[in-house]
Amino acid sequence: MANPKYLTEADHQRVSAAVAEAELLSSGEIVTILADRSDGYTDVALAWSALVALLALAALAIAPDFAMGLYDRLLADWGHEWTPRMILSLALGVATIKFAAMMLLQLWQPLKFFLVPAPIRTLRVHDRAQRAFRIGAERRTTGRTGILIYLSMREHRAEIVADEAIATKVDPGVWGDAMSAMLAELRQGRTADAMIAAVGQVGAVLAAHVPRREGDINELPDRLIEV
């Protein structure tokens, strides 16, 4: 299934223009990425399904008469006796049905992402941002002045990752203003404005710490990457 598009072509142009403007006073190179999600979380979905199956088995162990009676009423012949093999088969059937049902429920994406614990979402977004930075910005500029603004929509998480020349000069806490500006716009449903606000804040920090050098050229694309 294709990822949804969050921005129009006009929005893309606005973000690209904001990046170009922010780089005018700095040697920094800003890369922007907007992701639908940072992970598929299949492992988390499997874990929830396994937990539901185990809980079903626990319930069967605590109150076996209910499940066995239901089986008798729906499927079994009258007057049969429960053998160990039949009991184990019943347990396997119950666990399989519960596991499959939970997996199917999690095909509904809002539920799937709701069930992903917040620390896992944060870690996966961080890891994805780091990978994107290594591919798209790290050590790809002459002065190692690349910086990535990464926004992951389904996780409601954002990351700012800076290359060596910037990271050694700027305390990580400085990016808090950019994150706050981005979140303020996101809460109003203005995704493009959120990215533009972050770009503006990051550009101001870059201008203060890595001012534009004479003969500086644009080494990384200004366009927003939407994945």
From TrEMBL:
Superkingdom as given in the UniProt entry: Bacteria
Keywords assigned: Membrane, Transmembrane, Transmembrane helix
TPM domain mapped to chain residues: 127-204
Annotated InterPro entries: TPM_dom (IPR007621)
Residues spanning the membrane: 45-66, 87-108
UniProt cross-references to PANTHER family, sorted A to Z: BLL7265 PROTEIN (PTHR30373:SF8), UPF0603 PROTEIN YGCG (PTHR30373)
Name by which UniProt lists this protein: TPM domain-containing protein
Organism: Novosphingobium soli
Lineage: Bacteria, Pseudomonadati, Pseudomonadota, Alphaproteobacteria, Sphingomonadales
